[in-house]
Amino acid sequence: MFDTMTMTKVVGGVCGSLLIYLLSKWGAEVLYHTGADSHGEEHAAAYVIETSSEPAEAEPEIDFATLMADADAGAGARVFNKCKACHQLNGADGVGPHLNGVVEREIGSVAGFAYSGALNQVGDVWSYDNLNAFLANPKGAAPGTSMGFNGLPKAEDRANVIAYIESES
User: Fold this and answer.
1) Rg of the Cα trace of the chain?
2) Under a CB-based contact definition with an 8 Å cutoff, are residues 161 and 83 in contact?
3) Is 116 in contact with 105 (CB distance < 8 Å)?
């Protein structure tokens, strides 16, 4: 089936293909190489990003009570759209407990709702500060909570949504 001539052709074909591959690789490196050793000149970068060695200024800490005094319930209504999937303001429980009268309400006190048990780490009542901490990072404030929301990173949004919930109660 295979004679000497067939094996010679196969070996020659493989060696020829390898030779063509190596020569084309070498040719591409010569044509497209942009380093200093390619044509005796060094190419500059297209643009330079300046970086500072100084640390960035820390954002000034704003008192949450001041934010609550300036909170806008109308803006909070738009932010509350993120919460509507699980929480209601009509007294009915959904995936999460209803939020009517949540400000200054005892934590985990909605009758008939099965809480995850992790909320006792937040505090005793839903004060502005406890709500702020929980809304900023629910999993950080109450590790093990069943609430799947990642939180509201902006303090203004947290103040606005608390003002909205309070105005609807």
Assistant:
1) 33
2) yes
3) no
